[in-house]
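Weekly sync notes, structure subgroup
Attendees: PM, AL, DS (notes)

Item 1: joint prediction request from the bench team. They want all four components modeled as one assembly rather than separately. Inputs as received:
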Amino acid sequence: MLTSVDPDVIRVLGDPLRLRIVTLLARETLCTTHLVEETGARQTNLSNHMKVLREAGIVETEPCGRYTYYRLKPEILTGLSEQFAELAASARAAAENKRACP
Amino acid sequence: MLTSVDPDVIRVLGDPLRLRIVTLLARETLCTTHLVEETGARQTNLSNHMKVLREAGIVETEPCGRYTYYRLKPEILTGLSEQFAELAASARAAAENKRACP
DNA sequence: CTTTCACATCATCGCTCGCTGATACCAGCG
DNA sequence: CGCTGGTATCAGCGAGCGATGATGTGAAAG
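Output from the run, pasted for the record:
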């Protein structure tokens, strides 16, 4: 048990627009055009965010002709879920574990 | 099933120092002095972060003499864990659910 | 009461990072 | 080939936010 959460992934998901993108991609696999429609953001802006999500290993790209589809990698989300569950369990166990005042 | 994650909580945890603080508090209940020692951050800086964590409902304060102890609220972490688990499940189910190119 | 120490608040600085516009790239289609 | 449309990359701007220093408050210790 490591009882910690990957700071990089959380940091990437900390941006509201990126979290929105992830939520959308959890429902269906979409390409940039769809995401532009859904979010109202500019294509450039979206492409930048997709790059961040890709480099963080949160999404995968699947070229389809001249379109680029983005698919969520569920393992990442599952990992986060487990890490937070561990943290929660640890926090519950350590509730009364007070370090003495110096 | 809402299949989304609270953006505010994630945003707050997106900061590396705050995530570190949460990780430390998952092991034991600490006061500001302890956190200063553990993280090496200045007291002012830490106090600011604790205010953010408090306002986000992630930690609770427990005054003890002139010390202030901080305790994690495990429900928040449990909620996050469940929300990410939902997202992961939804992502797995929607893997082949591609929207047609316009 | 005075001092000391833990902690919070405030104002300010500085830098990161998200947003934008311009541009380049690539794949289909005529 | 030339054109169109989808997408990525790059440079620059500007707001947001994290870090700092000065200062205030409140509680114990002397």
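Discussion: Chain A has a mean pLDDT of 94.
Action: AL to compare against the crosslinking data before next sync.
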